[in-house]
């Protein structure tokens, strides 16, 4: 019912009210419209996930299990060229999320790749089925790279060990990208409330369902994805760490978080609480 915490987070937020606001702002204040349009363009850009690593480590296999998760609205997965190929240029890392695939302890070039990545990087220790103690290699490899490192056997056949936790973590990181983008748009909208010609329209947008949903997406997901990789038996399902699906229960969950978190967490929990209450009101036909 709420899109804020889902795989396609924010999909229920169709942006129609935002488009109406853009039209109104365009009529009232050209400068404000340019600022708003630029922020909306960034927010609506597709999210790129790049799967990278040295030749033969299992980039295609990892890509396949991620892409097969399905229903990932607005997210594109792609395999880069391989790193460290003699005579070839190393691939450019430009994705919103980079998944670096290893199949043993990291090599020097893996660290070069991590340093070349612009934003979020997740390490995946593939071919875990071929290692005696994949959890230990993942922990030491992750520490060496300064990253979260998940053991997986993406191309080892029917078991697909570690695939569910990998998908859960990638989902969480994609939600973080969405949250960051929503926060940037929200900040532009709040800034526009200082412009007299558009203040009323922007405030009305922020107070209506779509603006409230935007606030909830911007607040991000807490708790994020559980740390389910280190030492976990292969193939163990991760608890998704998400609040209840029922809107009233979810509102209660976030209200409970108000006591648990610091000031930032309180703001975030309030935004989500507010959004879930709206969900429940819509569901109960109260608005
Ligand atoms: N044992 C085992 N083998 C795997 C696993 N994943 C991939 N492989 C094998 O490793 C080889 C390379 O896998 P790919 O997924 O093609 O790796 P890649 O990095 O895309 O390779 P290139 O694109 O050719 O550089 C293939 O023979 C796969 O069957 C795994 O989890 N376990
Ligand atoms: Mg490949």
From TrEMBL:
It comes from the Bacteria. Residues 225-246 are annotated as: Disordered. This is Uncharacterized protein.
